[in-house]
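Structure tokens please, single chain.
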Amino acid sequence: MSHLHDISQHEIGRLRIYMTRGDSVPAAGWKKFFGTPLFRHLVNLAQKDGILHATTHSTPYGFAQGKNVSEQHPEYSKKCAVLYVELTAERQQLEEFVKAHGELLQDKEMTYKHMERWKLASASQSLRQISVPAEL
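Here you go.
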């Protein structure tokens, strides 16, 4: 069977940083009463640092290590609700991100998973990329 597309593979990784909705970045002045949510700050830093993908995922029910079980409520936001920020990029880039922003992450649970990134190319495009002209 002839296929119209080829798959190219590239090794990348996924880093999950777990936190609660109430975790925030310390702020100065009058903003210290509100602070920026840590999950938003991390996504913005990831974009600035050139991370491939950054998303947040909230959980409807769960707990963080050493904390009580929390449930999301449709009418109000609980500051103890668990969520995670997921970053996808090459392992070295993720390691650099963690080292550069260690002061924000030192008490956070983090997990890393190796993955493959797939890209589709048409079979004719792939042949053009790997074909070598014959020398006369």
